[in-house]
Amino acid sequence: MIPCDIYDPLFVGRLFDEMSRTYGVVNMISSLGFARRWRRQCLRSISIPRSAAILDLMTGTGELCPDLLRLLDPAGRIQALDISAEMCARARKHVSPDDSSRLHILQADALSCPIEDESVDCVVSTFGLKTFNSRQLTSLATEVYRVLRPGGQFAFLEISVPRSGLLRLPYIAYLRYVIPLIGRLALGNPDNYRLLGVYTSAFGDCRKTADCFASTGLAVEFRSYFFGCATGITGVKSRWKAG
Ligand SMILES: C[S@@+](CC[C@H](N)C(=O)[O-])C[C@H]1O[C@@H](n2cnc3c(N)ncnc32)[C@H](O)[C@@H]1O
Q: Is 91 touching ligand 1 by the criterion CB < 6 Å?
């Protein structure tokens, strides 16, 4: 049975609190290593300046942070934000003392970021879009527009349902049956992993997200990874105000 409002940020935060212990291992096994490769491709899809101020939204346990730190010189800064207290706690455990001045983990809702206007060079985010409905995707796009400096870039990535009929059915079966089983084997709650499949089926792919971002005035490009098993968007905020 599907509970109340699965898009309520409080509900989503609690869901990931519960999954925090097993998320990393289940994600790695269930994606057959693709998740790691797609994260890197997502980061390579924009050109991140070495001294950039970066905002990593829906950071989880900080999966993008090691790659981001490698891209930056000592002047670069990362703010990594997640709504789940437990995911943030795990992300903080991975921050070495050497990196602590460059990487800050914040527990906050991405739909109302505690980040100053036009203070960020790049916004990046992987696998964090599926738990937003259409209205929330528009709010997210507005936040990304607000925090980006003129000329700033963004890159988002999400697991998606491929459009090809050949891949679509086995992929949905994989989400529905295999991932919850892997969740159970990792001693997690299989219902939580089943719910991730529900979010993904409803999300579809990043085309709707691309429209929401374009509606704020951001220039957006849609991207497909491995026959549409993941999709993403990249783009830029214009240096000039429309008008
Ligand atoms: C599937 S995990 C992705 C984690 C990581 N970015 C990765 O690449 O694996 C999605 C994360 O989004 C976070 N999240 C969902 N809704 C959020 C919101 N409104 N604000 C901030 N974080 C949110 C969840 O807590 C969860 O940690």
A: no
